[in-house]
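# step 3/5: fold
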Amino acid sequence: MSQKYEGWTNRETWATNYHLVNNHDMYKMLTENLLAIRRELTREHAEDPKAFVVPLASAIRHRAADWLKDWLEIEASEAVDRGHVYTLQMLLAIGSLWRVNWDELATEYVRHLPEDPCP
């Protein structure tokens, strides 16, 4: 039986995407950080392409997935102390962060990043 949900790996991945792209502040932070990751790795690749054991696009996706997972885990751990109601509601809707497919989210977000205004 497939666990696909609305075209995503599972319901948790779909719910994470839903909340990130429907909250302006979170989406802005997400986009700014992913642009910074792409900029940094592109610069590093230009300086020393042999230092990369995977293609640049894969390195960007992997770094983006790691950052996204870490960011949301930190947000989750600090949501109560900071009184972030939206984050708490998001976490309740997602259910379980360990089931989120971070690579799928990062792939989708990196693919749709705008052109970098500060190359």
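# step 4/5: annotate
The CA atoms of residues 35 and 99 lie 25 Å apart.
# step 5/5: archive (pending)
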